[in-house]
Amino acid sequence: LTVQDMAGTQVLVSLGPTREFFDPARYWSNPSTGIMGGALAMAAWMRGAQVSVVHGPVDIWLPPAVSYTAVNTAREMFTACTDLWPAQDVGIMTAAVSDFSPVPHGPEKFKKRSLNSGEFTVPFAVNPDILRTLGHTKTTGQKLIGFCAETRDLAGYAAFKLKEKRCDLMVANSIASPGSGFGSPTNAVTVLDAHNRLEEWPVLPKAEVAWRLLEWLVHILR
Ligand code: C5P
């Protein structure tokens, strides 16, 4: 028995971390592995969707039928996602985008010998919010799922971010509880939709979280 309830649906999934380079040898990043986004891309493909993945540096396998755009920086991810967005029915933004980038030192490696004290200061610039940009340019038929990693008040932050980024579904995952968050094969999430339906799920395999989220999405799409 096959479930093809996403046949004919174009889905964009962003996943993984971004790398914000300071000099040719050093970058600012986070521990995202892309497992949650990979599970969603896989589940969407299995349900018949045409899936495009924009990914930071990750090591995950997906079926060859999925189309890929590899990026490093948040700005590259922004360009790739905003270029693809008009052709999509659904956006699922699981990427752990760096909110800030160090202002680059320049093309040469920063030398510790150039320091004359035990510390130095690096200025950071704010990156564009990709999800928010997609939310604020979405058309009537397009649906958007956002993620957020939180240490407390998952429902509160989910409500705020759902509204602020104009999402249809916001998934808050706990990065403070065991069996959840970065690099874990399981996740504990709180899910909120634009009709204020709220669910708190127990620790589940990320593949099951993905399947359940698509169940919810298919319901919203109908
Ligand atoms: O506001 P916060 O970073 O917690 O929101 C997380 C959500 O926003 C994720 O879905 C992430 O992919 C997206 N995001 C983004 N661009 C940013 C920061 C976050 O698309 N610069």
UniProtKB/TrEMBL annotation:
<feature type="binding site">
    <location>
        <position position="147"/>
    </location>
    <ligand>
        <name>CTP</name>
    </ligand>
</feature>
<comment type="function">
    <text>Catalyzes two steps in the biosynthesis of coenzyme A. In the first step cysteine is conjugated to 4'-phosphopantothenate to form 4-phosphopantothenoylcysteine, in the latter compound is decarboxylated to form 4'-phosphopantotheine.</text>
</comment>
<feature type="binding site">
    <location>
        <begin position="128"/>
        <end position="131"/>
    </location>
    <ligand>
        <name>CTP</name>
    </ligand>
</feature>
<keyword id="KW-0511">Multifunctional enzyme</keyword>
<feature type="binding site">
    <location>
        <position position="109"/>
    </location>
    <ligand>
        <name>CTP</name>
    </ligand>
</feature>
<comment type="similarity">
    <text>In the C-terminal section; belongs to the PPC synthetase family.</text>
</comment>
<keyword id="KW-0288">FMN</keyword>
<comment type="similarity">
    <text>In the N-terminal section; belongs to the HFCD (homo-oligomeric flavin containing Cys decarboxylase) superfamily.</text>
</comment>
<comment type="pathway">
    <text>Cofactor biosynthesis; coenzyme A biosynthesis; CoA from (R)-pantothenate: step 3/5.</text>
</comment>
<dbReference type="GO" id="GO:0015941">
    <property type="term" value="P:pantothenate catabolic process"/>
</dbReference>
<dbReference type="GO" id="GO:0004633">
    <property type="term" value="F:phosphopantothenoylcysteine decarboxylase activity"/>
</dbReference>
<dbReference type="GO" id="GO:0046872">
    <property type="term" value="F:metal ion binding"/>
</dbReference>
<keyword id="KW-0479">Metal-binding</keyword>
<keyword id="KW-0460">Magnesium</keyword>
<comment type="function">
    <text>Catalyzes two sequential steps in the biosynthesis of coenzyme A. In the first step cysteine is conjugated to 4'-phosphopantothenate to form 4-phosphopantothenoylcysteine. In the second step the latter compound is decarboxylated to form 4'-phosphopantotheine.</text>
</comment>
<feature type="region of interest" description="Phosphopantothenate--cysteine ligase">
    <location>
        <begin position="11"/>
        <end position="222"/>
    </location>
</feature>
<dbReference type="GO" id="GO:0010181">
    <property type="term" value="F:FMN binding"/>
</dbReference>
<dbReference type="GO" id="GO:0071513">
    <property type="term" value="C:phosphopantothenoylcysteine decarboxylase complex"/>
</dbReference>
<keyword id="KW-0436">Ligase</keyword>
<feature type="binding site">
    <location>
        <position position="99"/>
    </location>
    <ligand>
        <name>CTP</name>
    </ligand>
</feature>
<feature type="binding site">
    <location>
        <position position="165"/>
    </location>
    <ligand>
        <name>CTP</name>
    </ligand>
</feature>
<keyword id="KW-0456">Lyase</keyword>
<dbReference type="GO" id="GO:0015937">
    <property type="term" value="P:coenzyme A biosynthetic process"/>
</dbReference>
<feature type="domain" description="DNA/pantothenate metabolism flavoprotein C-terminal">
    <location>
        <begin position="6"/>
        <end position="218"/>
    </location>
</feature>
<dbReference type="GO" id="GO:0004632">
    <property type="term" value="F:phosphopantothenate--cysteine ligase activity"/>
</dbReference>
<keyword id="KW-0285">Flavoprotein</keyword>
<comment type="pathway">
    <text>Cofactor biosynthesis; coenzyme A biosynthesis; CoA from (R)-pantothenate: step 2/5.</text>
</comment>
<feature type="binding site">
    <location>
        <position position="161"/>
    </location>
    <ligand>
        <name>CTP</name>
    </ligand>
</feature>
<protein>
    <recommendedName>
        <fullName>Coenzyme A biosynthesis bifunctional protein CoaBC</fullName>
        <ecNumber>4.1.1.36</ecNumber>
        <ecNumber>6.3.2.5</ecNumber>
    </recommendedName>
</protein>
<keyword id="KW-0210">Decarboxylase</keyword>
